[in-house]
Design brief:
Blueprint lengths: L2 H22 L11 H38 L26
Length: about 100
């Protein structure tokens, strides 16, 4: 696992634990802390998404690197700029219409 799924899982478990203690524990803790339980569920969902998609993202990155390598290998080389340079004093550069 990379750092992001680990962090999401840690936040999820911590928030769910805090929410559980507040909900099922003593009544001396402010009720606003019960918000931690749904926050834990949200972060657990984000953890599941990132955990499931990390292999897909890795394979996509590998395919893109291979595709870019092939494109670079078969890319058209730029022409020699000195061979196609045209001087500004060339006589064949007269305007088509002179008004």
């Amino acid at each position: 696992m990379t750092r992001i799924p680990k962090a999401l899982l840690a936040v999820s478990l911590t928030a769910f634990a805090v929410g559980s203690v507040v909900t099922f524990g003593s009544s001396e803790i402010p009720v606003g802390w019960t918000v931690a339980m749904p926050v834990g569920a949200i972060f657990f969902g984000l953890f599941l998404l990132t955990f499931m998609l990390q292999k897909e993202v890795a394979s996509f990155d590998e395919e893109e690197r291979a595709r870019l390598g092939l494109a670079e290998r078969y890319a058209v080389r730029p022409a020699n700029p000195a061979a196609i340079a045209v001087t500004a004093t060339a006589t064949n550069l007269t305007p088509a219409h002179s008004h």
